[in-house]
UniProtKB/TrEMBL annotation:
The protein, known as: EamA domain-containing protein
Bias (Basic and acidic residues) ranges: 1-10
InterPro entries, alphabetized: EamA_dom, EmrE-like
Biological classification of the source: Eukaryota, Metazoa, Ecdysozoa, Arthropoda, Hexapoda
Membrane topology label: Multi-pass membrane protein
Chain spans, region Disordered: 1-27
Localisation per UniProt entry: Membrane
Major site of localization recorded for this protein: membrane
Membrane-crossing residue ranges in chain numbering: 72-95, 107-125, 137-155, 167-184, 191-211, 223-241, 248-269, 289-311, 318-337, 343-361
Amino acid sequence: MHGEESRAGYEAETFFGPPAPAPSKGEREPLVAVQVHRYGASAPAYSNGYHRNGSAAHTPFRKALDAPAGTATNWLGVLLAFLSGAFFTLSSAAVKALRAMDPMELLLVRGLLQVAVMLAAALWRGAPLLGNKGFRLLLQLQGLVGGLTLVLLFYSFRRLPLGDATTIIFSSPVVVLVLSFVFLKEPCGFFRTLIVCTLVTGVVLIAKPPFIFHGDAQHYDVAGYGCAVAATVFTALNMVVMRKCKDVHFSVVVLHLSLWTVALALGLLLSVGHHRSLWALLRHTPLDWAMAVVVSVLGLSGQVLVACALGHEGAGKVAVTRSLDIVLAFVLQAFAFGEVPDWVSATGAALVLLCVLGMGLENQVLTLASILP
């Protein structure tokens, strides 16, 4: 391991020249990774965690997207990321297919299952159930944001074509880019601006707002597309807030998210649900309950797999790999639900997929551009 790090540092010095002196230990937070997954970084990161100009190789948003040590692709991480996206897509398809149950009934079942599993995991690990001191308020914030994200996801998958909803929601990594520019003043050059503009174009082509496409406003699902766009923003916020809770055991983080999910699903079920009564849960058939359990298991498996994927591969490649499941969503939409997308939606989905791929491969694109004449 030390030999690999020394060789990486030597090669960097040979190509770029010797690095500037790094600040003292008390003035910085040392980084573990030899190279940092770059989102707008102006210079390569050396093994001491600093750029050639001596500036820190990370910001709060970039820390959430750091890759593990090494630059070679970890194909196990890529496989786990693809499987996690597939599980999420299959879970979303099950939510859409199970019309006999209210979306909040399904979310309530999933939340209760997650509470049971994560509570057992936290007790087995001996983790404090209320969270570490200094993180308890932040833990509740991430639980609320995560619970609202799941509520919006379930409503959007029930109301919209599966491919449309999946494409809009999977554009969340680009929303992180926008948030980092607006709130943290991270640089946003020509390449990132092009990515954002292309993404907005793709989402508009998918959503087809009537005031642009002159469609039938009476049959336009404003609530469905509104939930999908809001879910995209909340997904990006949830990723950042969960990164802030990195010192809390993951079982405790997911446990609090699940508790908030149960509370929100229960409140919405009793206030705006189809039956507005918990007794309606007893009227469902065994097949409905079996499908509800399948939805819960698929969703929980997707969360576990994406956590495992991030342990093997950087978040950039994980996000890019998961975005490939947009294709799976459109295949399911066409063959399972008989909703063949038109060329406008297909074009929009292709643009969004291109944006997510371009953002994940930003390092390679910028490196290639720098060596071209």
